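Figure 3 (text version): structure tokens given as input.
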């Protein structure tokens, strides 16, 4: 009796003292439901349980049970034993997801095999997951974009650059500066894609490359010849200078790397970064493409449009836009000798052309003093604005601001494609007439080259607030730049893929494929893709008699004929349904004679 009772309570000491008070064991949520009392015939287990700690040991049965309960609670949307009031992932607004979407989804129904459909579906899942992750991580970006806001009743165009520089922090205020270069102007200028380095080219031969943020000079030379245009190439180590006779390529130390005598009389240049192509427009009316990765001339096109002094590029599809003296703008690709599109934009000559970063809108200015915005999806005008003085230079920022240089006045417009602007967003007067205009990437800075040097203007809201370090990193080191250059060369897009609609590259040209098939049939004398005639397999035990073989051939032929008839009937039924759904036109008396 004493042994049986001792299993459930503390044994009485020899001295006959009082019983120790039992403390109830604490129950944790990971231990699950309470266990029943220990049977009386197991004293060793009860004693061992009293000596154990409250939390079960790793690997013990209680630990396994706790993990099962924890998993069950997580599956039920519970945290610490309570139900989660907001189960699942947080919802994402549609406009944030749409911001990171690229292209259109794949058409799974048009895939030829189930394996291909599964592969495309898996790729679509990965793309959708990447888009959602990018939209969620946008909350962690360090910078936020914004625009200049004036006081109630105050126009932002009346705010001077000195007032903006005084109101912002010191680091941003240093981005507003002016370089006085009176001897060799007027100046053309260009920024690198990361936006860190600046290239200046004076009409009288002065060429300078510098890090404009630290004001450190990379090189400064005088080519002793007229300079018409300058542009950076794929990195800040190389730049091209269009001189009076030929085209020259220099490194960042001012050393001449190459002299391209086939490119003579160049007036304007545009560099296509993803194709490593340098497009040049000459005074003789020729549009030429140079592949700088191999030093080969890709295409030479005679535009038959006279002197080509107006040039721009579409960043979305690498199409070159040229403005002509007859008021037309032509779109060119190195694969076609004729213009892809010819648009009549102005009654007089075209003075400037610019395309926004999305490739949707194009801005043009002409001798008729009009500034027009066109939708490149439909090639239709959206807005038209009459300026007091015609704009000689245009430039779009990364966030859609449009800068126009009207003589010695630089005006910046906001939301031009949405509504016609009644007044500019910013305005600044230069000491001389502007000769070059360009927004700095990833910075709220507008660079202007003019007759007396260069001026860096502050344009709040112009650049993207955050940059992709794998694409364009302003703070990359020498090693990172070398690795990026190798990767960019490996991912170079061939010039044959430059088209108006880049989405067509993923589609099958059925007409061309059918033509190639017909040419192959004519060349071989037979159709290699034709289905061979059915030949019954020979069977044993007298089952391959002449009558049996004939019956099997007829059976297969009848099945093929039945399939063809079913397809024709389905087509007829579909045409009949479309005819019934379509509205009936007014019947004529002669309809009775139609078959």
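Below: residues designed for each position.
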């Amino acid at each position: 009796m004493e042994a049986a009772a001792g299993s459930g309570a503390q044994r009485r000491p020899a001295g006959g003292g009082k019983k120790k008070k039992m403390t109830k064991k604490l129950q944790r949520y990971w231990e699950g439901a309470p266990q029943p009392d220990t049977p009386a015939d197991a004293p060793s287990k009860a004693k061992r349980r009293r000596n154990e700690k409250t939390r079960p040991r790793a690997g013990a049965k209680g630990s396994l049970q706790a993990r099962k309960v924890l998993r069950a609670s997580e599956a039920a949307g519970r945290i610490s034993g309570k139900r989660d009031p907001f189960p699942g992932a947080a919802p994402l607004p549609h406009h944030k997801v749409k911001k990171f979407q690229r292209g259109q989804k794949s058409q799974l129904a048009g895939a030829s095999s189930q394996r291909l459909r599964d592969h495309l579906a898996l790729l679509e899942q990965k793309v959708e997951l990447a888009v959602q992750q990018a939209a969620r991580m946008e909350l962690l970006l360090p910078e936020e974009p914004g625009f200049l806001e004036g006081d109630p009743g105050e126009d932002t165009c009346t705010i001077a650059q000195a007032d903006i520089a005084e109101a912002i922090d010191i680091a941003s205020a240093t981005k507003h500066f002016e370089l006085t270069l009176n001897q060799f102007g007027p100046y053309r200028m260009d920024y690198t894609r990361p936006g860190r380095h600046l290239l200046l080219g004076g009409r009288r031969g002065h060429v300078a490359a510098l890090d404009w943020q630290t004001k450190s000079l990379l090189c400064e030379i005088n080519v002793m010849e007229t300079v018409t245009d300058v542009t950076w190439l794929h990195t800040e180590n190389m730049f091209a200078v269009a001189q009076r006779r030929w085209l020259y390529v220099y490194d960042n130390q001012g050393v001449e790397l190459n002299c391209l005598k086939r490119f003579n009389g160049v007036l304007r240049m545009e560099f296509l970064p993803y194709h490593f192509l340098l497009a040049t427009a000459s005074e003789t009316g020729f549009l030429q493409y140079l592949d700088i990765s191999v030093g080969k001339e890709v295409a030479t096109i005679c535009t038959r449009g006279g002197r080509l002094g107006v040039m721009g590029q579409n960043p979305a599809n690498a199409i070159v836009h040229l403005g002509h003296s007859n008021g037309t703008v032509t779109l060119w690709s190195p694969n076609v000798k004729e213009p892809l599109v010819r648009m009549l934009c102005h009654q007089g000559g075209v003075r400037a052309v610019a395309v926004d970063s999305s490739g949707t809108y194009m801005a043009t200015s002409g001798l008729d003093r009009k500034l027009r915005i066109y939708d490149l999806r439909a090639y239709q005008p959206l807005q038209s604005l009459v300026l007091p003085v015609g704009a000689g230079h245009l430039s779009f920022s990364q966030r859609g601001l449009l800068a126009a240089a009207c003589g010695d006045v630089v005006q910046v417009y906001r939301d031009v494609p949405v509504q016609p602007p009644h007044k500019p967003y910013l305005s600044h007067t230069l000491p001389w007439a502007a000769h070059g205009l360009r927004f700095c990437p990833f910075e709220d800075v507008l660079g202007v080259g003019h007759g007396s040097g260069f001026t860096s203007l502050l344009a709040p809201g112009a650049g993207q607030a955050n940059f992709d370090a794998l694409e364009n990193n302003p703070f990359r080191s020498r090693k990172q730049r070398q690795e990026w250059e190798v990767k960019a060369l490996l991912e170079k897009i061939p010039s044959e893929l430059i088209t108006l609609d880049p989405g067509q590259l993923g589609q099958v040209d059925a007409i061309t494929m059918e033509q190639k098939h017909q040419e192959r049939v004519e060349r071989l004398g037979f159709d290699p893709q034709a289905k061979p005639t059915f030949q019954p397999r020979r069977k044993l035990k007298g089952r391959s008699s002449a009558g049996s073989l004939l019956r099997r051939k007829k059976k297969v032929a009848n099945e093929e004929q039945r399939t063809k008839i079913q397809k024709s009937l389905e087509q007829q039924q579909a045409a009949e349904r479309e005819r019934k759904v379509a509205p009936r036109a007014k019947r004529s008396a002669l309809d009775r004679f139609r078959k």
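The two ends are 112 Å apart (CA to CA).
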